[in-house]
TrEMBL record:
Protein name: 3'-5' exonuclease domain-containing protein
Ranges of residues in domain 3'-5' exonuclease: 11-232
Highest taxon, organism lineage: Eukaryota
Bias (Low complexity): 131-148
Organism: Porites lobata
Length: 361
């Protein structure tokens, strides 16, 4: 299927064995021409090791290939695409590769490699260009916490100002590309998916979702080209961080799927510190996210009680407590309102709430 005014990009929807062979041949020829950069994105219902992976989109800078995994099954990857995705030397742009990697491995035994994650690149870029985001609200969760101790940062556990938000793909398109057409396509697709959670399993795939797939890959090239030269180039550090991101969910024996695992904060010790490609030695587990960190990540009280929470998990717990307090207050207010209801003389509480006395039924 060629371009039919769906987007400005050439694309091919692949849902047959013949089409699959042709698409893989085209991809291999393009890769053989030189150092071709790819962009990859997976879609599905509750995408993860447990949710269905139904679409995988692989793009060069010239053409987009949308593979119908729901129809083609394992053949999608045994055709040669799996080898491309597993090739460490073949650079692949992705945006938050964690769920994609988890699904590819646990459903299809494809071990994703060679990823450059644009979500992580944006964090590196934002650190060096804080004014790049005009709505750079609360990069940190509690930036004032450090000042309460007079600026003391003796332990990692006190450095709460280093907790960083991660941005979604749509927000990055808005902030850095400011392309109204792309934003409109993303917003429309998002609204459709919010209305129908099963949309990625329905066929034929609508033109709106095809546009969504095309934009999700082609816009990655533009975001990457805008940010890739931060600090004169951060390829090595980005590669190390992306390798950790790829395995963050995939490497877990079991997943919790809770707020401690899935949240809007950058996990700690994913991006190496500036000037290094290493991470501090980890010897103590966080009891919430089950990740290992240096001993100093945790307060002495936490260690004493055996209830270690890394700084990200502490923030998640704080937000949960705030929400719970709100809900408790709403319940108290509602009960107080009921307690002060003035029931007319001669009317029972039952009649007041039900509109009739029990014997009047």
């Amino acid at each position: 299927m060629a371009n039919e005014n769906i987007t400005d990009y050439d694309y091919r929807f692949v849902d047959s064995d013949t089409g699959l062979q042709g698409a893989i041949s085209e991809l291999k020829l393009k890769i053989a021409e030189g150092n071709t950069l790819l962009a990859v994105d997976c879609e599905g219902n509750s995408l993860s090791r447990e949710g269905a992976l139904t679409i995988i989109t692989v793009a060069t800078e010239e053409k987009v290939y949308i593979f119908d995994v729901q129809k083609l099954g394992q053949a999608t990857f045994s055709s040669g695409l799996g080898a491309i995705l597993e090739d460490e030397s073949r650079k692949k742009l992705m945006f938050d590769c964690r769920q994609d990697s988890d699904a590819l491995w646990h459903q299809f035994k494809v071990k994703l490699s060679g990823v450059l994650d644009v979500q992580l690149l944006e964090v590196i870029y934002r650190r060096e260009n804080p004014s790049a985001s005009t709505t750079n609200t609360a990069n940190t969760a509690q930036s004032s916490s450090n000042n309460k101790r007079g600026g003391r940062r003796n332990r990692r556990s006190q450095r709460t100002d280093e907790i960083e938000k991660i941005y979604g793909f749509g927000r990055c398109v808005e902030l850095y590309l400011q392309d109204e057409k792309l934003i409109k396509i993303k917003d429309k697709g998002k609204r459709l998916l919010e209305k129908d959670k099963e949309l990625w399993t329905k066929r034929p795939l609508t033109d709106d979702l095809i546009q969504y797939c095309v934009v999700d890959t082609m816009a990655m090239f533009r975001l990457y080209n805008k940010m890739k030269n931060v600090n004169g180039g951060e390829q090595a550090r980005l590669r190390v961080a992306s390798d950790k991101y790829v395995d963050l969910y995939r490497g877990k024996t079991e997943r919790s799927f809770d707020g401690y695992e899935k949240n809007a904060y950058l996990p700690l010790d994913i991006i190496p510190d500036k000037g290094t490609l290493d991470f501090p030695a980890a010897n103590t587990v966080c009891t919430c996210c089950d990740r290992w960190f240096p001993h100093e990540e945790f307060s002495l009280t936490q260690l004493r009680n055996g209830e270690q929470k890394c700084r990200v998990c502490k923030e998640i717990k704080r937000l949960e407590d705030v929400q719970q307090n709100r809900e408790d207050q709403w319940a108290r207010d509602a009960q107080a309102a009921l307690d002060y209801v003035c029931i007319p003389d001669g009317m029972s509480e039952y009649a007041w709430f039900c509109g009739h006395e029990p014997w009047e039924i």
